[in-house]
Amino acid sequence: MSLHSPLPSGLDMNLEALFAPKDGNTYVEEDMKHCAAQQPLPPVILPKYLRFDPKSPYQPPVLRYGWALGEERLMEIVKEHFPERIRYTWVRDNYTTEPDVRGTLRDSLLCLAIGRRLGFQWDGFSFLNIGYVLNKEGKMVHAITVGSNYEGILEQPWVSRAQELFAPGDNGQWHLDRREWYWTRDGPVFTEDDCRE
């Protein structure tokens, strides 16, 4: 997989930190699989060092909270609950009867329809996202998420309502973002005590 930007280096990290590069200093492309294998994380409160802190010299990878259901399962949910949001492929001046999966899942109006079904207030819509996360093998998989370690997550009862709709009986988990799966640093070194909380 080619990466969109150069990977961080000069991190000088403690190797005990989740998602640190193998050498603690410089990420290489193979580290994506190494980091992906360390997740998803269970639905518990994240350790402080994995939460965004604008005062910290280290910024953690983006972790998204939700359900990595895959394209097929998400489309089943759309067909069952939001058929009016299905987009169709345009071929030779006509729409086909075959759904445009990518167009459907990327449609911002689908998130709006989901939020309305769940009874969100306006502030809840910003947490809802359909996009890619990494699975344990480092491959991209479609997920529906209700927050991140940078913005926080939706409060109850909204998370429970989303779970009932998308994955009954399956608690959400923390998944690495497909693009921002690595630490960045701007400041002093990461100490061992930072990982112990």
Which keywords apply here?
5-stranded antiparallel beta sheet; 197 residues; 5 helices; alpha+beta
Walk me through the structure.
- This protein is α+β, with helices and mostly antiparallel strands.
- It has a domain at 31-74 and 107-195.
- 22% of the residues lie in helices and 20% in strands.
- The chain is built from five helices and nine strands.
- The chain has helices at 31-36, 70-81, 101-105, 108-118, 158-166, and strands at 58-59, 63-67, 88-91, 94-99, 129-134, 140-148, 152-153, 173-176, 184-185.
- The strands form three sheets. Strands 2, 5, 6, 7 and 8 form a five-stranded antiparallel β-sheet that branches. A two-stranded antiparallel sheet has the order 1-9.
- Strand 6 (140-148) and strand 7 (152-153) form a beta hairpin.
- The longest helix has 12 residues, at 70-81.
- The chain is globular and about 55 Å long.
Concise description?
With 197 residues, the chain is an alpha+beta fold.
Could you state the order of secondary-structure elements as H and E? HEEHEEHHEEEHEE
Helix content: 10-25%
User: Alpha-carbon distance between the termini?
Assistant: 34 Å
The secondary structure category is alpha+beta
Q: Which parts are unreliable, with pLDDT below 50 for 5 consecutive residues or more?
A: none
Topology:
Blueprint: H1 31-36, E1 58-59, E2 63-67, H2 70-81, E3 88-91, E4 94-99, H3 101-105, H4 108-118, E5 129-134, E6 140-148, E7 152-153, H5 158-166, E8 173-176, E9 184-185
Antiparallel strand pairs: 1-9, 2-6, 2-8, 3-4, 5-6, 6-7
